[in-house]
Design brief:
By secondary structure, this protein is α/β, with parallel strands linked by helices. It has helices at about 15-25, 60-65, 90-100, 105-120, 150-165, 190-205, 230-240, 255-265, and strands at about 5-10, 30-35, 50-55, 70-75, 125, 140, 170-175, 180-185, 210-215, 230, 245, 255, 270-274. The protein is globular, with a radius of gyration of 19 Å.
């Protein structure tokens, strides 16, 4: 860490909240720019400065951080990719930026945003900077280990998810044996799991082994959009009746790890980092 001040561009979820908390614990001053409707001041008691901005206010965000002497920024928390079609309210710089995009894929948008901030002397740093303990190493975390059939589904799902992630479609797939039930799109992991659950209830053999597999992109940039799982992921799986959640070891952030493991054991799910 090269500064005593960090800026956070905060989306929804606990990840940016924990970053703010852990940074403050280390004596780092926290300045938060929240995406309107996704993050709220009451959740950031550790922030010295908090401001809400609309999605697309690129110029305003850069000015805000420069005004408060921020030179390093973390992008954390989820903002629905589909929001670009409904909630985009750009300022002048944001409008020019948007018009210059040749692709609206997540990877392209975020890498271009990083370039814009760099022009103004603001560097994006790894979103794991204050979350080093949130990245479990390889191993089974739950009491229950995968069966041979489940292990086969995990391996197939991992290969499939890596291909999907490489195409910047999503980071999660749901598989049964050697068949793909669902892949994650703009809706996010939990809704992908729920959609897969509906398909399984309608069409699949109830005895079928179903695995949910989440991975990082083959060329994952740790400055944005890391794979994340949490209690909601486990609750969605339990509701769908699925038996295995596998995620890429050392590259997936697990929020509230102890509680996630307890939920897995409560529902007799296999939870493993692979």
């Amino acid at each position: 860490m090269t500064t005593n001040k960090i800026g956070i561009i905060a989306g929804e979820g606990k990840m940016p909240i924990y970053i703010a908390r852990n940074a403050a614990t280390k004596g780092v001053e926290v300045v938060v720019a929240a995406v309107k409707g996704n993050a709220f001041a009451d959740d950031y008691p550790d922030a010295q400065v908090f401001k809400t901005l609309r999605l697309g206010q690129l110029g305003a965000c850069i000015r805000f951080f420069k005004q408060h002497g921020v030179t390093q920024v973390i992008m954390a928390g989820r903002v629905q990719h589909s929001s670009i079609f409904s909630n985009l309210m750009p300022d002048l710089r944001g409008a020019k930026f948007w018009a210059s995009l040749k692709s609206v894929q997540t990877k392209n948008i975020r890498s271009r945003v990083i370039e814009e901030f760099k022009k103004e002397g603001i560097e994006f740093v790894s979103s794991t900077l204050f979350l080093e303990n949130f990245l479990p190493p390889k191993g089974v975390l739950s009491v229950r280990c995968p069966t041979a059939e489940e292990q086969q589904a995990i391996e197939f799902g991992f290969q499939t998810a890596k291909q999907i992630a490489g195409l910047d479609i999503g980071l999660t797939c749901v598989v049964s044996q050697n068949a793909v039930i669902a892949v994650e799109g703009m809706e996010g992991t939990d809704r992908c799991i729920r959609r897969a659950g509906e398909l399984v209830r309608e069409h699949a053999n109830k005895k079928s082994v179903v695995a949910v597999v989440k991975v990082a992109r083959p060329d994952q940039d740790n400055r944005y959009d890391l794979p994340v799982i949490g209690k909601g992921t486990l609750e969605s799986m339990a509701a769908a009746g699925f038996s295995v959640l596998a995620f890429e070891a050392e590259k997936t952030l697990v929020i509230d790890l102890e509680e996630v493991v307890k939920l897995a054991d409560k529902h007799n799910l296999c939870l493993c980092a692979v």
